[in-house]
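Chain A, query sequence.
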Amino acid sequence: MTRDDPEGRRLAPTYAPELRVVPAREITTALLDQDALRVVSRLQRQGYQAYLVGGCVRDLLLGRRPKDFDVATAAHPRQAKRLFANGRIIGRRFKLVHVAYGQHIVETATFRRAPSESKELGEDLLITEDNEFGTAAEDAVRRDFTINALFLDPTRREILDYVDGLADLERGCLRTIGDPYVRLAEDPVRILRAIKFATRLGFRIDETTWDAMCDLSEDLSRSAKPRVLEEILRLMRSGTALGAFRMLRACGALEVILPEVDRFLGRRDDPDPSAHDRADQFWRLLEALDAFVHAGQVPTTAVCISVLFLRVIEFEADPATRTLSAPMPEDLYEVTGEVLEPFALSARLPRRDCANARRLIAVQRRFTQVASKRFRPAVFLRSEEFPEALDLFRLRSMAWGQGWDVYEAWVQRYRAAEEAGETRVEAPEGERRPRRRRRRRGGSGRGEADGGAPAAPE
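Chain A, predicted structure.
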């Protein structure tokens, strides 16, 4: 239910929560994270409300194993921090307490409520501040979808449902809390989250929620670019990328967040057979990526970006199909830059990931290249990008039904090189840096002390 002010502008939804408490008999202690239980137990012993909340409760009720267990509590961040010597306060927009048990972190958040009405007057409902504490009921109502607003009290073994989330779980329905036009306008990234949950869980999207997603998809251009990129990568790694990107295209979101890809796919009503073939090849590549994920693999960011833009780059590298107005570069690596650099800039993709994706695409031809003085397979095997490039070649072979024998031959060659200790040993993430020759001091070397030229970096 929504309200209108005297000028007819849509305001935040009024939502009267009604608490429903249901025994959680099917959720045993063995299914729960012990560190999260410690956090909840200590907060409750100190007199604060504290529950497991969100995706972990949803997944437990669906019989799935949660990836993370989050805690919501009435304790303010500083109050919670005082209870845990292993806790630290993080965050700018909204402060959280991270309670660390070794490498495992339990994220603990204070109950929030929707921003005050004075901040929501007017036509622009985009939330820029969300830092007001509230009650458990207010916290449930301000969340995005009903199935994500359930609380679990692990001590009493009870589910607290303020928004009819249990009924939607039983129906397999994804629905916003309150007016979908308001909730999606507050945070358009919820459009991407809706698609993620619907495809991952196999849920149908409520009709009014879907209509709002289609009508408000253009608002994604106003969302924080790093958040949009993060959700894109999550969709790529979900194992349901094919269904998710088809849904993105159907609601108009793909045109906003990945316009280059959407243009490459062409209009859905285009009678040109070549447009259908382009789209088919792209969908097959996503299908191969899903199979890759279901096989237990986690594609890197560079591989994900390469999958998204591989066909676009190959299209622009062909003089017969090129659409870019700039002169055709002689090198494929330069074509990858033409396509990827604008995307990386607009999406705030880290330079390292963009450079890696460019290399992965540019070296694909080496897998079918004959050895020569200019190309030595043994050197290619030892290159830093080889493992990711091989993953991309595998996806291409799966998608288009060509080159699988070539892929298996490279796998065997790589394994033999590993056994012989001939593959590259990479430094840990964040520690990789160019190596430099050490200058000799004294002795008979060719350093500066002997009048020779200074050693150049390798």
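The longest strand covers residues 104-110. Residues 273-294 form the longest helix (22 residues).
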